[in-house]
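Protocol step 4 of 5: obtain the predicted structure for the target chain.
Materials: sequence only (see below). No template structures provided, no constraints applied. The aim of this step is simply to have a reference model before the mutagenesis design in step 5. Sequence pasted as it appears in the construct record:
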Amino acid sequence: MLKHCVFIDFKDEVRESEQFKVFKELANLQDEIKGLVTFEFGNNLDFEQKSIDFNSGFIASFDSYDSLNEYNNNSNHIALGNQLVSMANGGYKGIIVFDIET
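Step 4 output (structure tokens):
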């Protein structure tokens, strides 16, 4: 299993509803991409006060590298990813991505 973890430092003017709209559209890719097993998103609760700048994010689970690659190359994912970049402080620098094999 691969976990694709994405955390975003959204600009102050980007409302939660706008953030979650993009996340929901990414979650809908489960209908297109075989092997995209789960897609979960939410706000950063930051109990340890270590990542205060990163407002929210998502974790997508894939059953194989091929599924993750299909997701990465999907035209809808690319468009939505570009939208997230435009919403992040510093553009792509305001986004952290971890891909973890579990």
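Step 4 remarks: Helices lie at 16-27, 65-73, 75-87. The CA atoms of residues 4 and 86 lie 20 Å apart.
Proceed to step 5.
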